[in-house]
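Subject: Sanity check before I submit

Could someone independently write out the structure tokens for this chain? I want to compare against mine line by line before I put it in a report. The sequence has 168 residues.
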Amino acid sequence: MWECRKCHERLEDSFEVCWNCGTSKEGVEDPTFAKAEEGDKAAEADARSIPADQRKVRSRRRASARTMAQLIYVGLNGYVLALDRDTGEIVWSNKEMRSGYVSLLLDGDRLIVSTNGYMYCLDPLTGRIRWHNPLTGYGRGAPTALISVRGQRSANLIQQAADDVASD
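---
Independent answer below. Compare away.
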């Protein structure tokens, strides 16, 4: 965890910039930063006047301003997508998975993806692959379950983990 030097928001280590104000971990403020809902309106207004390569950078900045709570994850035929939960807009798409049925598990700050016997760990804010394991020798197909204590929100699991820590 780190704390933003500008607005004092507490952020996960996986965030390079504060989602609330756009300040980097090092305390550098981005003068072009706007919150997602504000940034989308501004981006639409000036998109035509910005060169294509700079548009991609701004698009990535807007995406980094979103939080996982603002995204809905979808797995379809070897694709994994993140949609904005308010607009339905595709925030990112990853087509590097093998084709087939896709199972997803949001495991804290990681999106675990399984398809046809291959396992992937994606960054849930960008869709970039963090790691990949072909699970050689275990067969193909969709898993019957993907389970993680971090991926569960059950009060029983949280209490069990707290009890385990307390007993250590």
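---
OP: Matches mine. For the report I'm noting this point. Residues 52-65 form the longest helix (14 residues).
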